[in-house]
Amino acid sequence: MTRFAWRQFRTQALIVAGILIVLGIALALDGSHLVHLYDTTVAMCTQHNDCSSVTQNFQAQAKWNHALDALMLVAPALIGVFWGAPLVARELETRTNQLAWTQSVTRSHWFLVKAAVVGAASVITAGLLSLMVTWWAAPYDRLIDSPYTVFDRRDVVPIAYALFAFALGVTFGTIIRRTLPAMAVTVAVFAAIRIEFGEWIRPRLFAPLHATGVFTLPTANSIFITPGGVGSNDWLISEEVVTSTGRVIGYNGGIGPNGSINFSSGPNGTVNFSGVGTCPNKFPSLRPAGSTSDLQAATQRCVESFHLHTVVTYLPSSRYWALQWSESGIFVFGAVVLLALSLWWVRRRIA
Predict the structure, then answer these.
(1) Count of CB atoms situated within 10 Å of the CB of 226
(2) What is the pLDDT of residues 144-185, one digit of tens each?
């Protein structure tokens, strides 16, 4: 049965193996160039005070980055659609399963062997792909603010996604019994689960930390200034602007529902800090008698008078690998549950 399952899957496996070999050679050649370029330019740019231009040139050289990121996002879904969904559904459509079941092969053995062969191929494919892309992108990833930015496209979790997508495809193929509808449902459900998990579950897998700092008006180079203790490699889950009484009045460095910071003229020459209140101090005129520096000082006095604070919820970079393994464990557990459901369905619900 194992040899028969391999013969059925052999052509697809060899095609994918060939693609991985070609991609691996290309990434090895281009990645070696990127590593050398990073070590000789970006890593030494502070000595020459030209980090901005050097970084831009390096990012331009890493021209495959966006394509590889997209590949890592869609690869698990493709495995679920093209390897998972047809695994049982195509057999049921063509009724070739009946031949195997009449040859002294039990339903359980038939299903488990097929799932093991293709499932192992899915894990190996995703693992090799993630290894190659993670290695190639390592110099580029050092330039981003946080490793959490590319969390779901690097290291271990893409392997778990691939196994889960495969199991999801097998389950829908087993229940729906038609290949094309099972493929469509698989990609839709997998995409929805990935989006919802990243939005609602991942930020809550570990209890986040909180930091509070004095609210500062954003500058041209920063949306907001993070409180002390929050590093650039940490994952900023949320940032709230609160009053001295703890009332939330804004998010992500802004005030109000639109996240903007506005000052408007009020009656009798007063100035209103939109969403906060009326400034206790007067603002200078911008006519020739006034100056921009005076206006900035008045604006700062107004902001300080309200004693606003920023409250940042974040996950430190030290928890990156713990989060990788935890999320991977959840998706692997989900895959095991789905395969168990598929096995039960094959044994009990298929005539």
Answers:
(1) 19
(2) 778 999 999 999 999 999 999 999 999 999 999 999 999 999
Residue 148 and residue 219 share a domain: no
- The boundaries of the domain holding residue 116 are 2-205+319-348
- CB atoms closer than 10 angstroms to residue 163: 28
As a whole number of angstroms, the distance between CA 120 and CA 2 comes to 13
3-state secondary structure of 250: strand
Counting Cβ atoms within 10 Å, is residue 45 exposed (0-12), middle (13-18) or buried (19+)? middle
Question: Domain check: are 12 and 135 in the same one?
Answer: yes
Joined together, the tokens standing for residue 196 give 């919802």
Q: Are residues 171 and 63 in the same domain?
A: yes
N-to-C CA span, the chain: 21
- Among candidates 6, 4, 177, 190, which has minimal Cα distance to 86? 177
What are the residues whose beta carbons fall under 8 Å from the beta carbon of 221, sequence distance 6 or more? none
pLDDT at residue number 117: 95
pTM exceeds 0.85, yes or no = yes
Do 196 and 111 share a domain, yes or no? yes
Q: What is the CA radius of gyration of the chain?
A: 28
**Total number of domains in the chain:** 2
